[in-house]
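Exercise 7. Predict the joint structure of the components listed below.
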Amino acid sequence: MDLNLQELNQTEFPVPAELENNIAITSLSQLYNWGRRNSMWPMLFGLACCAIEMIATAASRFDFSRFGFEVMRATPRQADLMIVSGTVTKKMVVPIVRLYNQMPEPKYVLAMGACASGGGPFKEGYNVVSGMDKYLPVDVYVPGCPPTPQALLYGMIALQRKIDGQSIANGDDVPWYGVSSAEPTPVPVLGPDIIDPRQMDMIRRQAETAAADMPSLGVRELPAATQLVAAKVAADTTTVADATPISEDALSFVLPSGGAPWAEAEDIREKRRLRALARKALRASRRAAVAEEE
Amino acid sequence: MYGTGLAKGLLLTLRHFVDSYVDDIRYGFRKYHHSTDNFAIRQGTKTKGVITVQYPDEKVAVPERFRFVPFLIVEDEDHPTRSGKDWCTSCGICAKVCPPQCIWIVRGNDPNTGRPVPEPEAFFIDIDICMNCGFCAEYCPFDAIKMDHDYELASYDRTTHHIHDKERLSKPNSYWRSIAPTRAYEEMLVRGTWEHIDVAKEARRGAARSRPAAPPPAPQAEDAATAVASEVASPAEASAAPAPTAEGATPWTEDDAKREERRRKALERKARRAAKRGQ
Amino acid sequence: MDQPGLAPEKQLDATTVEEAIAYLRNEYADAVTLDDREGYGGVIIESKRLVEVARAIRDGLGFDYLSSATAVDYLGAGDHLEMVYHAYRTSGGGALVFKAQTDRERAEIPSLVSVWRGADFQEREAWDLMGIRFMGHPNLKRILMWEGFHGHPLRKDWREAYYEEDQKPFDNRWPGGQVYRVEERNVFGKNVTYPPDIDLGRLMDNSETAVYQSLGLGVDVERIMDKDGFETNELVVNMGPHHPSTHGVFRMVLTVDGETVTSLEPVMGYLHRNHEKIGERNTYLHNIPFTDRLDYISSMGNNHGYVLAVEQLMSLGRKYNPPTYRCEALRVMMVELSRIVNHLWAIGFWLNDIGAFFTPVLYFVQERERILDFFEAVAGSRMMCNYMRFGGLFGDLPERLKSVSNLTNDRVRDYNTMQFLTEMINERIPRTIDELERLLTQNEILIERSVGVGVLTREDAINYSAAGPLLRGSGVAYDIRRADPYSIYPELDFDVAVEDEGDMYARYRVRVSELRESVRILKQILPRLEATAGESIWADGKPGAYAPRVPHGEAYGRVENGKGELGYYVVSAGGRGGSANPWRYHVRAPSFINLTPMGIMSRGYKVADIVGILGSIDIVLGETDR
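Solution:
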């Protein structure tokens, strides 16, 4: 992690040969990054189980101040790094976005653990945000549930490597190295469910469709009393898979870039159904045989 | 008297401080040196100081039972008959027993006959959902899915890196035996063979058909690679052979008597199971 | 409200629970019926006369401690909502279970806050998640979700955003093989229908003023917030959900008069991750690793409570083998080790709160790491142990705590397990406790800060359903390991730690004594482990099934966890011959209920003491919000 003089002098800009070892300005980016990555102050901010491992990482056995994550600051105004350590709930994401907006640039977000990265085991929950990156730009994801202190340290080193790769000269690289500062992230609103203000147009469109009695988009129905035993069967027919396909432009808004990394298996469902029927018939015949014997 | 509490506290802090540096002197200021073999003492119950693990330069190795994200076992490349084949038979127990339901399995079909083959066509684990509970490994009847020990998985993009497909998940059998030699050995005892359970069944069936044929030579005192590779017919012979690791060293420190005892117990268990099945 | 804890007018001759039930049925023949459903127990009280009967249960029968109050939705099995109460005597013994039923459409049940103040938050939770209106509740507001949230999520017909199926395992994972993630089929990643004329401005007012106004602080917030008429004699101070001293994402709103706190209202739900809803979709086995994430400091204890509850249910069936002796001994050892971890953590962070910034806590975390190393080698994970199974354990102790080099620069350690344990229990942990006491117990700064602060009287502690060190610090010698014993605790020799003062210092003393008692228990466990070495941890020698079917019925398994009484109310219903998924899965979380008296404990003290009082209760948010 030391600043290597030779490394410092390597630059992407053409430099006259006689000046090669004297010019510092060309390495400003590296010098800047070196300073930045070795003085990252995380915010003293814990959400759930991962926060305990984060404290263990900060404690003397693993001690992340060795990497310049020196002091944890309780106020966002003095912090460079937000370690989202734990499950992000819908109720909590409002303050989190607000805290992020209060952090001065340059600022980084590290999603620690499965929950912060993608919802984790609680993903299906009604109050859980499936991934911090739905609201904030996340720089490093550390998987694990919870990540061990060493896994977190690895993630922090990965963040330092990322910072090393950023350039002041390139304003498109990161917003804060450019001329204008980034827009604050709109703070979500707690309505009937959480509402991302960036999605208002879509919500309105969907609400209109729903009003026109076309429940084509993932609509949550609140059915009246369903039968206990029938519930499982009903679930089969009303799975989201059966919802009519949604338009591409609507999807592109929420889908992470790259789309689904797997192909969908066709007609397996049908086969499974036939197999189940066959099994059922077999069982029935066996039962009949047993009954005859008796 | 006021102030004594403060003084006591400072004294205690000072003692902790000194304790931490006594180690330095004890190990001749080489406590973080690669060659010194004092890590177990420094990170054990005996140490008094507060000693930091210098993470990227020295890492706390994880114990054998450690669980992080799962991986699938495939046969080693140098296996004579099953090279590169999955241990997984796509029975689906891991997917059923997974609490957050992060495992997706697609069963494979034979392209010619259309009948299902005991090998998964696709296998996905979303490690952003996985809760590292280890149920899949615990309840897998074929010892085909195991919990990995590699925790250095941080990435910059989760959509491309955090859904592990079959290719990403597959790791050779020898890898599992190198990261958890004792557990691999115990599993072998239960299974009765170092091979996949199907191979043993196949062999038994073959032996039953061609009886009375001379038993294949017992692989005693053979080197590691051959022990793995040999198509062991009898489970008893297999368990008698020393358990090899990737390095070929004996991975445990227990004495022969204990091992013998364990083997006897495993055989008894097996016999009991067989008797039960017979009923 | 009447005065709690008054001596009953006549001492009734009903010592056992059965006698108490018989008395109730006799005395209130028209209001009390026996709950005779298969596998159920206790009585059902007609909801109109609930308060009257409850008062008789408390004063007449002496069941002065309301442990748990929760709601169950029996949709399709009677179509009613049911409140289930578990009341205990602080002198020890089993539970008197009583229930009150109500219609699903017009769900109304009289509030029991006037009888047991401990019902306060639990009834609010039942309103929030189940939609039962409690008549007479002083502050019936949502507690975990926000006001304006759509529906009551724990009702059986309520479906969430990523709803897939009613029960796990999900079909599309295997053998359905439909490989997709639900949010990919879902436009917003949420299944919500919005009204056609949706408008951000017309949403439920969730502004800060509205939040404060709704808390019932007794202060006109708008008047205080108003810039022109700004008055300083009464202020509203908000702490959290992001605050370094709130032990997580907990929030407190207090009104202060100068420096003195006049009222305090806890606000929670910022870590409400739907544990119970997910738990009802899970199979029984699936829930074990989820319990790890409740009180994530002491996951072994969480496992234990849940496993006890399900084993209670399983014992109703035919094929059930109770755990072996070795299994019980290992369970107790693990639980006591996590109690040590928990108390070290609690004391450390409490010291942080009252100003001994970070030095003590770093020492305790260092000690904790040794125990975590042991957990990691035995159970596989440092924090989320997932160690216990129904009728057994994940695995026996390994012969050696041995690591294997895998990554570059890995340093290997290798200890003999029993030797490691012996050293830890006989030397290292006692040394740590001695050091802790030397440093703190007589420290005059600590005494100045904590003696006489945050006082909770004995009567209030019982009436508010306080549990654990909070209860025992108020002079109530109630420890479930003694009062309602489980596992092998009856044969172990240990004392219940009690202090009478009820202040922060008393709670600290209780925790230190419990550390010592835990070491005492562990010392008795070691010879038991040696004596049972080689025995199986499973009664029939082989691990349990991965999808056990659990007979119908209800069970309440409770353990004395580090934070207090941790209870699991599990109902098995639906399906023939038992069920694979719990019908209701409720966690009686000590951290949640211990916050009920937070308001009265902090009234009259200084703002600077509030964080200390919160620290001395020792909460963990995973359990508070679930």
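Discussion. Chain B is about 40% helix and 10% strand.
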